[in-house]
User: Fold these one by one.
Assistant:
Number 1:
Amino acid sequence: MTELSRDEVIRKSTKEDSYWRGVWRRLKQNKLAMISLFILILIVGACIFVPMFSKYSMYEVIAADANQPPSAKHLLGTDKIGRDLFVRLFYGGRVSLGIAIAVTVLETIIGVVLGSMAGFFGGIVDTIISRISEMFMCFPFLMICITLQAIFGTSIMTLITILAVLSWPSIARIVRGQILSLREMDYMEACRALGISNKRQIFKHLFPNVLAYIIVYVTLSMASVILTETSLSFLGLGVSMPTPTWGNLIQEARNLLVLQKKWWYWIPPGSAIFLTILCFNILGDGLRDAIDPKMQK
Amino acid sequence: MKNYVIRRLLQIIPVFLGILFILFFIIDKAPGSIVSNIMDPTMTPELKAALLEKLDPNLPFYQKFWNWLVQAAHGNFGYSSKHFKPVIDVIGENIGVTFALSLTALIIAMLIGIPAGIISATKQYSAIDNFLTVFSLLGLALPTFFAGLLMLKVFAVELKWFPTFGFISASNINADFWTKLGDHAYHLILPALVLGLAETASFMRYTRSSMLEVIRSDYIRTARAKGLAEKVVIYKHAFRNAMIPIVTLLGFRIPGLISGALMTETIFSLPGVGKLSVEAVNNRNYPLLIGINAMLTLTTLFATLIADILYAAVDPRIKFD
Amino acid sequence: MTEMNREPLLQVKNLKTYFHSMNGNIVKAVDDVSFEVYEGETLGIVGESGCGKSITCMSLAQLVECPPGRYEGGEILLDGKDMLKVSDAELRKMRGNVISYIFQEPMTSLNPVFKIGFQIEEVLTLHRGLSKEEAHKEAIHALDLVRIPNPERIVNEYPFELSGGMRQRVMIAMALACNPKILVADEPTTALDVTIQAQVLDLMNDLKKQLNTSILFITHDLSVIAEMADRVMVMYAGKVVELADVMTIFENPLHPYTKGLIASRPDMNTSSNRLTVIPGNVPDLSALPEGCSFGPRCGFFCEKCGKGVPELVEVEPNHWVRCYRPGGEDRDN
């Protein structure tokens, strides 16, 4: 960890909100990150509102229109039984993003609780938690998800639980590491010297600092959960039809005929996944640079 | 060095046991009894009876666990009724493709990603650096399955440069060893490129940031002040140091690499462990699934150990801690 | 006193090294600096951190990172060559061979992944064309020269196995391995304990006599300067403000800044227990005050000082000062 200068100690311990204002100011200077944020807002907005205002619903089958390429009537064409793929794309986005948010929230809670326990208590608690997280990190992630899905069933709830239970170690490690290094830092020393109580130290000083790293992690985690969920759904082992997700919409392309002739089945959801992951990654990197300006190039 | 390896091995034991415990817990929860999941129908009745006694569902959990451990230690992870073979044999037949695919992708990633990262770092903010940075951002965001479909569409379906599926062409099934090997390689190119793409991007990113940090350090200035050629400064003095975190990355990337291999195999219909496991799910073949998990977890654990040893080999400071 | 009639070994004329920051600011880290170093002498460069003394010395062998740095002008004549104009290959032949460096941070200046021996051998094979075995023997000899005990063992150790003082000795051994004509020592003892400091300084003085190497010694520590230097150059905000031999600097400093530096030294001989300090801070090099850079902090500031930058003038033989009122004439009583 980097050492803080005396000015930073004073600034951090007196004005916490100016810290966040600084982060926001630095983030605003990063054009790429701001564009990504904007695109993400657009994507989320579209996923919320397009299904609401579309004249088709996602399960509605219009048999006469089956297998049509994009047209004015169906902006992204229809699938083999005549469902409008435009509305299904955005509905699928709702499901994919919804799962990503749920998993991220859950794993963050688990990770923060276990990570801070390990960081604060140290000793045997730390050893046990660290060893368990090491075990989890050895699992071939996708494989174990597949197995668990096969055993416990493929409902969305099971999927969310499995993903959250398997992904907490990364955030636990980050939180633990942060707490350990923050405890040794100059300004905590300064707080101790000033006689600020333990509880206040933790909530007023430690928390915002760890929070910064959690925000970065959450952003990057959104990207990786979307990737995992869509991968599983693509294999037919995540969310199953007829509920659309970005992953199982692409599943159609595992058919060679679709791959050859029907690009509108799989290119739009694939691009949506790609764009969303890209934006989350760039935003996450931007946030990290904004939070820790010394890390900047 | 020897002590270090021994210590690492000792540290791995509790992790290893924990992993086995979790796996056992999953089997215990799987539909069907443990016995039916692990039993080999070709066993003699005496052996069957002995096994039944050992894995009796009414036994306490820890005892079942211990008995299962003993079975697993003998390589008995169960029997695949679909293949009429013990699970371990079925996996053995399929894992070669997965390893070949992962290893090729890893080699591609290292051969391209590391030099590209070095160039990117030494020419920071130049046009080539910007290009490579954008490439790695895109490469990291492109999901393996989508990249696979795109490459399949472009290079196999449209351009017809590569086969669309499988590990061997029908015409070559009875060919001699070398023709077969060549054909395997030909079938492996596209999948390996797909899998290698994301790995290349992450190697490049790590190499770049690691090199950037090293290049600014005092000892690089010392190396320049000594009159060494820039090539020696970068590729010898800087890279030897930048390699240290990259070796750690190698260990961390293994589980991700295997996951990627599973996806790639499914897209290209390669007869590897990934395809096997998707089939196993569809057939509710639990013993096979557990076996695959055990196998891949052990592989990961082993790979991490190798990465640790490599780490000690490149960083002289580590051996003496 | 240095004999001034001899040809200088190193002659720096009007050197300008600027830094161009991303937002268009220009930091004139080294601004029109000229000086000479004669054979066998030690020239000390003093100044607060950020005054450009390190950048001046780094510029000599083009070790400043470019970009953001840039050599905007001047000449550096060393061994008959202009270091700013020679080819890259020639430059590399000079580095470590004719001009060598010792840096401030012994803890980080040696490459952590190579053995001590290898790092010294590298210079020997490169510049003196020795074979591996010869270089190895020479490396042991070089370590012996800097009084490292058990050199045969140390060559096979890694930097992290040595203390800071030992590492700095290794740096010295490495720097002197090819018998350079000039050794640039950039605060070589700042990071060391006081006792170790004294040992390293003694060693440098001995080796200098033994090898007749010129030394360019940078420090902010005046007591170290008193011990090491024959002549002293005082720098402030990228410029030379005073240049004279060491006795003159300590006994008759003329620039108000030099006076301030000397007065701010804890002195055993005075009864006063307060330290004199120079008021204010080192100015921001990208936004220097109008006129004399030291103006805002100077006790003798007058109207003239706020208008133009004074020239470096020879006020008495071999004593150069950049000040309109050297010694604060009118106020001196």
Number 2:
Amino acid sequence: MANADCIIIQGSNMAECHPVGFQWVAEAKARGAKVIHIDPRFTRTSAVSDKHLPIRAGSDVVLLGALINYVIANDLWFKEYVTAYTNAATLVHEDYRDAEDLGGLFSGFDPEKGAYDNSSWAYDEAEDGSIDEPAGPEHGAEAGARAAGDALGSGGPPLEHAEVLRDDTLQNPRTVFQILKRHYARYTPEMVRDMCGISEADFAYLAKTITENSGRDRTTCFAYAVGWTQHSLGAQFIRAAAILQLLLGNVGRPGGGIMALRGHASIQGSTDIPTLFNLLPGYLPMPSAGRHDTLEEYLAANASKSQKGFWADADAYTISLLKAWWGDAATADNDWAYDYLPRLTGAHGTYETVMSMLRDEVEGYFLLGQNPAVGSAHGRMQRLGMSHLKWLVVRDLNMIESATWWKDGPEIESGELRTEDIETEVFFLPAATHVEKAGSFTQTQRLLQWRHQAVAPPGECQSELQFFYELGHRIREKLADSQDERDRPLLDLTWDYPTDEHGDPDPESVLAEINGRHLTGPDAGKPLSAYTELRADGSTTAGCWIYTGVYAEGINHAASRKPGQEQGPAAPEWGWAWPANRRILYNRASADPAGKPWSERKKYVWWDAEQGKWVGDDVPDFPPTLAPGTKPDPSVGGPAALSGDDPFIMQSDGKGWLFAPKGLVDGPLPTHYEAQESPVANGLYPQQQSPARLKYARKDNLSAPSAGTPGAEVYPFVFTTYRLTEHHTAGGMSRWLPYLSELQPEMFCEVSPELAAERGLEPYGWATIISPRSAIEAKVLVTDRMRPLAVGGHTVHQIGLPYHWGVGSNAVVSGDAANDLLGVTLDPNVQIQESKVASCDIRPGRRPRGKDLLALVAEYQARAGLTIETGNRTVTAPAAEGKDPAGPDGHAEGGGK
Amino acid sequence: MGQLSGPTDPTADAHWEHNHPRKGFFTDTSICIGCKACEVACKEWNHNPQDGNLELLGSSYDNTGSLGASTWRHVAFIEQGQDRIVEARESGRALVSLGMPRIGPPAPAASVPADLAEADTTPPDTADFRWLMSSDVCKHCTHAGCLDVCPTGALFRTEFGTVVVQDDVCNGCGTCVAGCPFGVIERRSNGTVKVSTSREDQHAAHPEVPNAGIAQKCTLCYDRLVADETPACAKACPTTSIKFGDHDDMVEAARERVADLHAKGLTEARLYGANENDGVGGTGSVFLLLDEPEVYGLPPDPRVPTADLPKMYRRAGMAVAGMAAAAALAFLGGRA
């Protein structure tokens, strides 16, 4: 980021939530970069930016779409880059129909299942077919249930093969470029004014600043965080930015890209080596019953040997993982113990699991470094769910609210729960802090940084490593005599690490296992040095293929600590970045198709004809000796099929995807839909909300009516939740610390002076905020940092709510939890909850206590006429949607094949 | 006793034989992100107690309020509208004579360095609203009121030119509190809460507050300086808003930064504490502010009480002489 000429921070409050990473923004700014912050609130990030643009929460796709339209309409896209490196020239099948044609729905929508059959979005194929997924199409309903999008963290969606049809003139109406152009044609500055509340002048400033700072000589960087992800179409927000950055040639180049700012120290690491229900390490999907029943089916579904690039070798990554886990018990004869892996039988994400608890389908629950009673959407549902468990284990630094809800939670006060009636047995196990244990953090930039232990954990506190190691040993001891087949996976697991005198396993031995080693040949036993050494024949192991190389030569490269000023621009000897210690992904795109840097100023990786290889400041992200002009036969498949101008080596066709024929379950192009709850009608399509969003129509999960439907006026305001620098998420690491608690001692809400006047809110007095799920109280900060927005002719007020506080009696500071106001509606690609925008009312004074609180919430629900149907229509206006203006034969003009 | 006012080297003035360079901070508020890491790092390193009553203070994101016996770094938050920004820009431009380089529109063209003549002086984009953040700290004055009035010698001038309280000498008389023109030093009341330093006693009853009743303030991490370490606040600052180093270098860097900002049209930037002819002989901690000092709660013209001692002695001397003369005159006159 320090190399950027312009930084757009949108969907993130970087200075407050990533203050340490913000040093790179500060450095870029000191070098003259423009910094623009786009956010509903004026925050500490806005304060040090060149400009702040207030935006209506949830309208980001309109703004990004308008920037895409601006770039195309004004011919400002980076032609050489786009034509060579993206799928702009690729032809899409003639059955495809855009949301523009069908009133906001793409072709293939199945209103019964509320999901898409995406086969019509596929690339065109010679022989009159289309290029499908290798294992055949997966219906959006099934893909959504397993949040299949999570598996795209390191490689792109698979294709049968990469023999695409192209029109390099980009004139064919079925080229991705022409589809893109049509799709965004109505995303205009006027639409931005009417939907986002951003004036045409401000839009012009933004568009001009970005385009003037993109091209051969200059690069623009985007940074986002959960302000983009936590929406019912969160994945599409990021896709929209990716399209814009590809059009401007800002991917794979220094100072370009899209920084996904991860929430805390090792959240990136916790998806690489996943804590998610649907992933195996390195973004290999968790097998699903029915789709992945055999190893052969699993491997065939993950990647085709006929597609381009390194994801075609996913079989080697998978089998090396199975060898790492089950060692000698994994053999060619038993398909490398593939059947030891559990199978997904449906949606088992965190919110689905809580609903299963309420149905008494879940017996026990481990909470490790998580405080869902405060930090997850719909706190009441979380706490009531836990009250149905037989046992609950909370491992944390402090006695967090998720460990004490049974005696001092909000439902005890309201009378919904009585302590003596709760049968859940709660175990609290004290955890070691990060300074009391060694290990690695993987941060935002995929950089692994080693931490050494500073002090031993006090008392009975344990590291996670020790806890799980011991738990595994105890379970295996109990099962030692078992003859039951189902216990084999546990008994055959490789489970042996050297421990210190306190029984804490050596974390470097775990790192070595993750890195992997040779099992056979002259190097048997030696650590692998790169993932390209992995084989599908059982001769290698790797606990997480993308991390292979971190322990090359038996050296812990994550612990490298050479200061940046003592090395070159990419600083390869500080920590270790996956994959292969590359600092910028797809960096072959930093050179032109002939292999020359786009400009001297943005020189990074280039082709050295004399040496016959790629060289530069970073580890080239390309086959090292693949010359720029090479054009292999694409049918050979795998890395060998990559052309000299295919920089996106993890994509199945080697190109950056402007249009996503596969991989997304809610549309191949980002399209604006309103949030589940919105006071504004969708100005672009009759379809109000994302038709493919995951919605849960339940009595305990009511939604506010959207604009134009009866009762919308009962919850007239938008609220958005966020964090403050002074606290850590749900407060487990900050509300128990006096030094942090005193800096932000009380729950508050942020409102504009106009809203305060309208509702009679006193500065620093109390207010009650009511949503269809709950009501909470907060102190009132009246500030010009919150601005009412003029949207589509009326005023939209937004209320800011930090979510750090919770109701309990053990912390230094406590307060009502903002997340209690949220309902559960999820993005279908990755099952993230929509927590950045919802509807509420606000009034002065404290909230009622006890049963009166429930009565207040019920009174609002009754007044708005809420039922479980409210807000949960799949297709908003069936009469206007899904109709193909091209007529019943379904063929638009201009096939051109 | 050394010199009481005007420019001087306080270390030499305090008769240190080994003349370390004077150390100090340069706090550049134009890049402060208000994260308060300085406040926390300071309290952690110095084991200072929590203070305040754990309620919102009613001052934007500032719930600390001011420097005090237990808070040695304080981040102020000020929300301002466009009118105030314009005024600050004007007043900063007018201030260039106050020990700052003469750069900007009102200056004669000849004095503008060539490479800045073409500089873009249009005001920056965020002009309708701003949120100022500034981390305040003890100024470690060249002429320190607290030090000069301390009757017990508990306060002393270190070899780094800083001013430090010796906890075991201070008797809590409080004379220094009135002696500080910035309101920095205070006596620690025992109504505050000691913070446990180990996790075992986290939930124990609040133990006794350390150093209750005696004067406390920033030591510029004297215990770190003697080990050649950076003070905790500067070490923790993620954006280098708090810089630490030799005082002369800090003042130089601050002047350059102001010139740079003026060249970009940000004429609201001005230095605070870098004028060695002010009422405290210049401060050891200098600041780059974006508005009048009063906006940040800083005195516009701080003056150490002892600066007036010579004048007071002169006046008193003149009065004595006058009275003696009058008495003599009366006596002589009576005789006549």
